[in-house]
Amino acid sequence: MSEKKRRWTITRRGFLIGAGSGAGLLALGVGLGLPRARLSIADRLDGATAPGGLEATPDLWFELGETGKLRLYLPKVEMGQGIHTALAQIAAAELGVTLDDLEILQATSRVGPQDSSGTQGSASVITSYEPIRQAAAALRETLRSAASEQWGQPLDQIVQEGASFFAKGDTATRLSFGELAAGQREWTVPDEVTLRPTAELTLIGQSVPRIDIPSKVNGAAVYGYDARMDGMRYGASAHKPSFEAEFVRLRNESAVAAMAGVEAVVVEGEAGFVGVVATTRRAAWQARDALDIEWREGKRWSQREIEELVTVGGRGGVAIQREGHAEAMFGQGTISAEYRTPLAAHMPMEPQAALADATGDGVRVWVSTQMQARTADAVASALGREVGEIEIIPTYLGGGFGRKGISEVAIEAARLSEAVGVPVHVGWTREEETQNGYFRPPTHHQFRAVLEKGRVTAIEHQQASGDVLFAYFPAPLRFLFGVDFGAWRGGRIAYEVANRHVVAWRRKLPVPTGPWRGLGLLANTFALESFFDELAYVAGTDPLSFRLAHLNSDAAHVVRLRAALDAVRALSSWDAPPAAGRARGVACSFDAGTAVALVVEASLDGETPIVHHVWAVMDCGQLINPDTATAQVEGNVIWGLSSALLEQATLAEGRITNANFADYPILPPARAPEITVQLINPTDAPPGGVGEPAIGPVPAALANALFRLDGKRRRDLPLV
Amino acid sequence: MKLTINNRPFETDAPPDTPLLWLLRDELGLIGTRFGCGVGLCGACTVHLDGVAARSCITPLSTVEGKAVTTIEGLAEGYEGLHPVQQAFIDQQVPQCGYCMSGQIMAIAGLLAEEGAVDEATLAEKVTNLCRCGAYVRIRRAALQAAAEVNS
Questions:
Q1: Whole-prediction pTM value?
Q2: Where are the domains of chain B?
Q3: Which of A182, A398, A609, A684 is the most buried (most CB within 10 A)?
Q4: Per the CB < 8 Å rule, is B37 touching A427?
């Protein structure tokens, strides 16, 4: 739009969505007292995700040139979840234009809508849906007023058709969005805009082809690893040999500096940083491997020591769900079981990678990151610069899965570029990626329940986990809450049991742990849905019917979960016996506003589980792109099976020992089952999460199927 | 050393033990061949050597001399538009993050060129490329679609 005379006079009323939750929660805490406040926060956060806080100001989202092509800047990053297409569909629908009228651009930490929460938690559509529509509607109505002024016609006489307007009764005279933008005028954005009625949003709910796919089949897509600049060099840096090691000194700086292809050795002792810059990637890696560094070793933790730390009990348990008096009911006849899940790695296909160009004017970093704002802060702090000097430009991500929330590699590339004065690309090896990341924390779960006449009358889930999101909580909230909602995601019990009690323990670990696809959802759902299956077995009831029998109320999420279970019962022919030698297991979850029910059919080849077919039903509320949602369910099923069957990061001498695919295998294509997905699309539920929820029930559904094959309860992941 | 890459001659003085992957990416700018594991396990770096799929991260330049190297950028040469496997990957909306997809497509195209007709069992045995997003069901579907088209 016209730079000179632009006047975006938006009142923020009605445009600011979901901001300031921290303050709101704290105010709540003061009034209610600590334990009740915690429960109240848990109620709010259950199945929910962090609020977005995206502004709806249209000139942040849109840029309109004379060509008429409307540029849409998206703050969310594309990591395979199809978010660019989904958000473009929402914008185009509200604008009343086609997807071809839009040009989709990735917002950076400086350009476009600013997004403090990043791309995570299956929250992108949930938190962007309203702001995008508000911004799109504001832009549309701004352009309508411009047409109205130009023609001297009242607003209600201006009719929109695609990306142009005409005055009622005069279809021959038209002004396109582009032509309107070319005119010099003062732009006035309306204070309040009316969103289109849902019936007009026909692009929403269509399986339009993903806009990023063509570049992903011809090799043109640019990931962090592929970012290039003229004059660029390759960098690499040393990493700690064990989690608690501290840098002391570099012993052979001049020898490494003299290696072929090496242009610089960069030592920043206080930051514990040693890196090299070379003319080729290979030379950089070789020089890095040749660095002879003295480290001060800390404690070198073993696998067993870490697992023992993650055990329920002692002081500090925090109730995250409490109704009735479960504790008082346990005694003789109480059914109990314990479950464990291990440390797990993300293994995105693309290891960490970034290109940094540090100059006197500022620092630009192209990086595969889910968190451009946080990465900008981290780079600014590492370089001692103002955050305003840093621009983080997210590329496509070769997989995120929570691993690219903290992009250490951006800091490394920026340090090296600043030191040598030319652009530097740093790409990690697979081993660096695995050994220097953070991990899904180990978890421990203890359950107790009382069954009376085939019904659960009391249930308790005690859960211990390493940290997931705790490091990112603002300090007062951390103090107030005392436990990490990322860790207990999926741990609360949706089944209607009069006496329910869930307690979470935070276990601080010497191993870095953090967000991993679905956070605590996979571990907690594995434990809860395995245990509920055990109860069904003791009750002598069909496990799917048993679940339905404990989902009676007309609470919205209960109704939706029940519908998903009913649908998967039909889809999987649950009531017909499977082929000889096979068995089926069921599990379900409600997470991020989305209900999932899932049936796995498996057999055993000796001790090895063979998964034949998975039927999944997902109700994610209002659907934006059904085919993309289906693909996310398929991907979550594979991810869940991989975790259930194969994955465990092993630790010795204070470091991860299985760092590449040879000893940290992920599910290979030959073990992928047939997957049948059905989506339920109610019209009254708002958009829910899609990228993670289906992950939750997968391991339990498989474990429950295996139990029916050999009568053995598998209570630890991986299942074999 | 003289190489032929996507039907064009190329000369390099890189050390002969340099993995082909790094020459393609960092000297020629053919970024579509991706780095995933560096030890030939994931398949993200798959290219064709004389039409046969090979993992370029463990292929030293010395073994490539005299062979025709084809990367994802050159796969469609000689076809109208895209190679049938690429088209099938669009039709089936296969890629998610997309990082492994060049390798998946090259592996399947190589297999089809070698064997012509392939069925699910052959695919499961011969295409071992990893996909962390879990697009396996669609990869299989697209491979079978392309196989049917190549043979029709």
A1: 0.93
A2: 2-74, 84-150
A3: A398
A4: no
